[in-house]
Amino acid sequence: MTLTQEKTLAARVRADFPILHQAIHGKPLVYLDNAASSQKPLAVLDALRHYYQNDNANVHRGVHTLSSRATDGYEGARDKVAAFVNAAHREEIIYTRNATEAINLVAYAWGMSTLQRGDEIILSVMEHHANLIPWQFVAQKTGAVLRFVELTGTQDFDLDHYRSLVSDKTKLVSVVHASNMLGCINPVEDIVAIAHQYGAKVLIDACQSVPHSVVDVQALDCDWLVASGHKMCAPTGIGFLYGKKELLRSMPPFMGGGEMIADVFFDQATYADIPHRFEAGTPAIGEAIALGAAVDYLMAIGMDKIHAYEQELTAYLFQQLNAISEVKIYGPQPDAGVTNRVGLAAFTTGAVHPHDLSTILDQAGIAIRAGHHCTQPLHRHLGAQSTARASVYFYNTREEIDTFITALKEAIEFFGGIFG
Ligand SMILES: *Cc1c(COP(=O)(O)O)cnc(C)c1O
């Protein structure tokens, strides 16, 4: 993609995001914290407002007009999400509050009831806390054992080490598709195929891949996949779990209550079929509908276009950061076509503490994240207390990266002057 085309895409979409057009401390906002949460286009905000203004009612239970509109919107959005990740059946999509809840659903409904002492769960050292703590719960309760795939010398997923860990004891492999700290894209097709040779199930944490590229659950052949709406232009409070139909059907309920039942007696009940078995209580109806609007919005642009544009931006971000000698970036360097990583860079700068850096950049209108990014064991593993992280989405521009780099250099010079 050429520079002019790139400008066209960013220029075309930026008007859709009202929040981007504001000043922070008197400077134009440069939002580079997209790996933590994305901004929302008008189409999504409008869908939310339209629902509450015109159609608000509870789903499934009512026969009146508003209830049937709410139900149509809610179930229609499920079709959109199913198409977005190419699920074979719409009931393979379960709405959750976020990816965290989706992983907990699998951990409680499947893990707690299926795993036994000595069974092994393979994770990697780069997992987000959301894909670690629930499995610690399961291990503590069932006696299952957690094993961790290490990194290669270039800080990628070590596929050879993974191969050496998988065995007949392996019952689950739960790994991140694209790391929210290292930025690497993991070889999930291989990971799934190897696990399946041993009859193990595979869960993919797709929080950092689904918003940025085409993700096809049938091509991956994963057993479960999770993502959060708020990182893909949708509101907070909505995310989803994909699971293979028969597998989901075999799982007992996670939470009990309304919506998830078939027939209820005082002392027992039978449960609804999927997806409703796993959607107890009144769901986030407006948010689910807005997630559908986000999917429409992303698909209208084209995930391939979004991906290609972000590859360009990522190459540029790395080129600029690599030119600053004090900057140390974690994770693999982008390959020639930027096919091996997503558009984020976690880094340290020597003299400037990441939190101080984030505070200084905020004064210049620039939003980046500082901390352990919910990957504390990974930071410890890499010998870093915390890192700063800049992350792009398709509405970011090269000019914004320039603004960020200029402010970063000034901060390093300033602190270098004090401590150097
Ligand atoms: C954001 C993120 C999560 C958790 O998402 P929530 O929306 O907080 O549930 C899990 N894994 C990765 C890789 C993430 O980036």
Describe the structure.
This protein has 420 residues and is an alpha/beta fold. The chain has two domains: 3-31 and 302-419, Aspartate Aminotransferase, domain 1, CATH 3.90.1150.10; 45-299, Aspartate Aminotransferase, domain 2 (3-Layer(aba) Sandwich), CATH 3.40.640. It has 14 helices and 17 strands. It has helices spanning 3-14, 42-55, 65-84, 99-114, 133-142, 159-165, 188-197, 217-220, 245-250, 285-301, 303-322, 354-363, 376-381, 398-419, and strands at 23-24, 27-28, 30-31, 93-96, 120-124, 145-149, 170-176, 201-205, 224-228, 239-243, 261-264, 269-271, 328-329, 344-348, 366-367, 369-371, 387-391. It has a seven-stranded mixed beta sheet, sandwiched between helices. The longest helix is centred in the C-terminal third of the chain and has 22 residues, at 398-419. Pyridoxal-5'-phosphate binds at residues 98-100, 128, 130-131, 176, 180, 205, 207-208, 228, 230.
Question: Top keywords for this entry?
Answer:
14 helices; 4-stranded antiparallel beta sheet; 420 residues; globular; Aspartate Aminotransferase, domain 1; 17 strands; binds pyridoxal-5'-phosphate; alpha/beta; 7-stranded mixed beta sheet; Aspartate Aminotransferase, domain 2
Briefly summarize what is shown.
The protein has 14 helices and 17 strands.
